[in-house]
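User: Just a sanity check before I run the rest of the batch. Below are the structure tokens for the first item. I only need the designed sequence back.
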């Protein structure tokens, strides 16, 4: 059946639901069960039904285009984030328009304020927040448009936000190292910060440091500057691996307990720390156990495979689109105002234990 002959009612009949449910499902509106949405999408695909975006825009005042701004396309974390949000956007019958900032606050502000499409063609915008400084007034970035931030980490949200499980995940990571027998644990991510100051943490790495250090102190283990390293990328991860290797050798020479566990604030740094340790002949888990965060490092990325705290990226994408579509619907009310307070959701996570934190095998003599 050709798409020019198929109507919304045809899809509704095929899916066994009402035309209103079909409309809501295809436009990604909240309130439609996942199973129902999938049934509607399957019926629309089978019938080759297509939303007439031009007619829909003229009727509703919407373009169905969602503006997504991330840091880059190459880093595995942002690649996975972009894929999850793009997939969810498309599944809701919307069109993703993605651009990158190159980790520049100015580029992020420019993308929101002066894009040739901004405020004209986009129904709503999604911004990954970790490129923004903590002193940026986030609420002003939206310029009054429907807007959701990922990883905003504000204590009192001023914009709708969906955050990874920063503090909770890092706490679980350290607890896992402790359960595997580690007692001298290094923390990699944010620079050392006294616990009193971490009470006001408002960034992803700072929150992960708060969770990790809290788990150490709860277990009666030390949290100090000597075993806290600032690193989050390729080059500083490799350098930090070298520094930790030197610290391990120095402790052995002095007859004190060397670092035997490393909790990293992301997988990217963890993989490069493993490489840096290997440059000095140190291996995981034989010499030190290592765990990352984010869940982007599959088994093929490294040998040994990396244990990690995996973010539920699919849930992150669903929560983000739910929040954005609710905000879009609010702005299309008769009076044109949106009085809902800013909301925040924290997505789920799970521990994936792999070789890097396994029971250490016996070394060959």
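Assistant: Here's the designed sequence for the first item:
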């Amino acid at each position: 059946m050709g798409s020019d002959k198929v109507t919304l009612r045809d899809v509704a009949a095929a899916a066994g639901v009402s035309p209103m449910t079909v409309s809501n499902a295809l436009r990604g509106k909240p309130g439609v069960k996942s199973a129902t949405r999938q049934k509607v999408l399957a019926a629309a695909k089978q019938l080759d039904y297509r939303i007439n975006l031009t007619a829909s825009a003229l009727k509703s005042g919407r373009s169905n285009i969602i503006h997504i701004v991330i840091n880059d396309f190459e880093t595995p974390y942002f690649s996975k984030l972009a894929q999850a949000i793009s997939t969810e956007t498309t599944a809701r019958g919307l069109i993703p328009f993605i651009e990158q900032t190159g980790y520049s606050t100015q580029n992020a502000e420019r993308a929101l304020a002066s894009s040739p499409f901004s405020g004209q063609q986009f129904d709503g915008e999604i911004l990954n927040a970790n490129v923004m400084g903590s002193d940026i007034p986030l609420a002003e970035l939206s310029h009054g448009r429907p807007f959701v931030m990922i990883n905003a980490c504000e204590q009192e949200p001023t914009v709708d936000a969906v955050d990874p499980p920063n503090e909770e995940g890092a706490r679980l990571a350290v607890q896992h190292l402790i359960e595997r027998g580690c007692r001298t644990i290094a923390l990699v991510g944010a620079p050392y910060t006294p616990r009193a100051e971490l009470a006001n943490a408002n960034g992803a790495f700072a929150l992960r440091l708060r969770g990790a250090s809290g788990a150490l102190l709860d277990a009666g283990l030390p949290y100090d500057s000597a075993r806290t390293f600032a690193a989050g990328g390729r080059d500083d991860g490799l350098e930090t691996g070298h520094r930790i290797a030197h610290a391990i050798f120095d402790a052995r020479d002095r007859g004190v307990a060397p670092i035997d566990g490393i909790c990293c604030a992301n997988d990217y740094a963890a993989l490069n720390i493993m490489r840096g340790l290997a440059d000095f002949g140190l291996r995981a888990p034989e010499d030190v156990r290592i765990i990352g965060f984010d869940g982007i490092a599959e088994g093929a990325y490294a040998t040994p495979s990396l244990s990690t705290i995996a973010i539920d990226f699919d849930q992150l994408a669903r929560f983000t689109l739910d929040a954005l579509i609710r905000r879009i619907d609010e702005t299309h009310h008769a009076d044109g105002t949106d009085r809902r307070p800013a909301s925040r959701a924290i997505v789920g996570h799970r521990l994936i234990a792999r070789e890097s934190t396994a029971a250490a095998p016996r070394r060959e003599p």
